[in-house]
Amino acid sequence: MSERPSRFFSLLFIVASVGVVVGSVVLYLSVLRENYSIDNAIVNLSVSALLCFLILLIVRYFVMLWFAFLGHLESASDGEVGINPPLVSILVPAFNESVCIASSIRSIAALDYPTKEILVIDDGSTDDTYWQAIEEAKRTRGVEVRVLSQTNGGKASALNRGIREARGSFVMCVDGDSNLAPQSLREGMRHFVDPTVVAVAGNVKVVNRRNLLTWLQALEYVEGLNLVRSAQAFFRTVNIIPGPLGIFRREAILEVGGYSSATFAEDCDLTLSLLSRGWKIKYEPRAIAFTEAPEELFPLLKQRYRWTRGILQALRKHRRMLIASGQGLGTRVTIAYMMFEAIIWPAMNVFANAFLLLIAVRYGTTRLLALWWLQLTLLDAIGALFSAAAEKEDMRLVPYSVVYRMSYILLIDICKVLATFEELAGVRMGWGKLERLGRLST
Amino acid sequence: MDLVPILATVVLVATLSTLVLGVLSYMAFRARETRRPSAPAEAPRKVFFVRLGLPETEAIPSGSLDA
């Protein structure tokens, strides 16, 4: 059995819950005491609507916090893999990953799991990824490493090739630019003791915390995974199995037809396909993939642009899940929540900030803008504290929640909103591969 | 000292600059992406038919260079 959450963590959960409630009530009382002199009915109505939306967000946070806590407790109590665990084929699709492929293979070979094979699928790289992988395969002892090569067909095609060639009844899909923590596979495989679980999503951590932008991304990952994904895991309806680490029953992937190239978010697409069958997906916080985050603004925008449009494409593809008969309540809630997160919330956040800014300038109601920020920052800070404690993460992440809400999330949401417009307008897009800096190997 | 107006001003300035920066950086990013060739340069097309011209004879009727 995995390590149970500490008393400190449980105590922190209670403090966080009380903090959300008390902080919100205090802030609301302070707003009600204010006497605004706005003589425009539409503006007054909009302000009221935004404040209602804020209350909705607080409820959302509170519910999330509660189920995330339950998810953490439950995750720790799942079984153990036996002494003779099933063979797992680890698939590493790689396109121009010469900088980090060797380090990635090394970290996979070092996984604390006895029965595994590694398949590197070079997806027609134009650099020496293939030869780097071959060299590393020759150096690797104690585990079979196969390096396959194919003409460039995209990540989905490379993964499907790996699934076809895999000998294991389980496959673990990882990115060629990620490194894994040694316990990742063992911890992830524990959940398959339950025969109804078809996939387990891993935890992704930013490894290159070198500047403000990467620290903010690290906070975003830690908070997003420990709040949202842990809460989803409690209901076995995790909605995205991340590219850097996902473990699947091979049969389940084959049953839904493998990865699809129809969207730019093949991981989200596959996850929704699995969920649409009513299958269960869990999250394992101790199955960790370390990944390199963009260190500059343009590569970050490029990444988020692709994610946003990819998720929207996947949502459009699976939109029937929301209304189709035979879908469970959990699946419907999951897809509705994804639509909220992908479309409504970014738009609302950008609109709220722009609107509150305008009326602050026009009517001098600067305090409303400050309230909006303060309320969300309070939630973020509490979420960050809870998440960092849940994972025994670096507590230096918590103060970043101040800048996180003030600038970072707004910046990301602007990108999401504009990318959404482009998706709706059908603007053509390419894969937009990020340049890796090789931080993992240093 | 009332801290709220100071905080409010900081939030106001930060929000305004982020909104401007967000929109401008997105536009710059998209402009750069649009200018960048999305695929490697096309390989020279194979020529299956070459127009031959014989001196003092009629030129061979031209056809498509594509097979």
Describe this protein's structure.
Chain A has 442 residues and is of the alpha/beta class. Chain A has two domains: 7-76 and 334-425; 80-296, Spore Coat Polysaccharide Biosynthesis Protein SpsA, Chain A. Chain A is 56% helix and 12% strand. Chain A is built from 13 helices and eight strands. In chain A, strand 2, helix 4 and strand 3 form a beta-alpha-beta unit. The longest helix of chain A is centred in the first third of the chain and has 37 residues, at 41-77. The radius of gyration of chain A is 22 Å and the shape is globular. The mean pLDDT of chain A is 86. With 67 residues, chain B is mainly alpha-helical. Chain B has one domain (1-58). Chain B has one helix at 3-35. Classes of the chains: A alpha/beta (442), B mainly alpha (67). At the A-B interface, helix 10, helix 11, helix 12 and helix 13 of A face helix 1 of B.
Task: Please summarize what this structure is.
The complex is a heterodimer of chains A (442) and B (67). With 442 residues, chain A is α/β, with parallel strands linked by helices. Chain A has helices spanning 7-33, 41-77, 101-109, 129-139, 155-165, 184-189, 212-234, 250-255, 266-276, 297-317, 329-363, 366-390, 401-425, and strands at residues 88-94, 116-123, 144-150, 170-173, 178-180, 197-206, 246-249, 280-291.
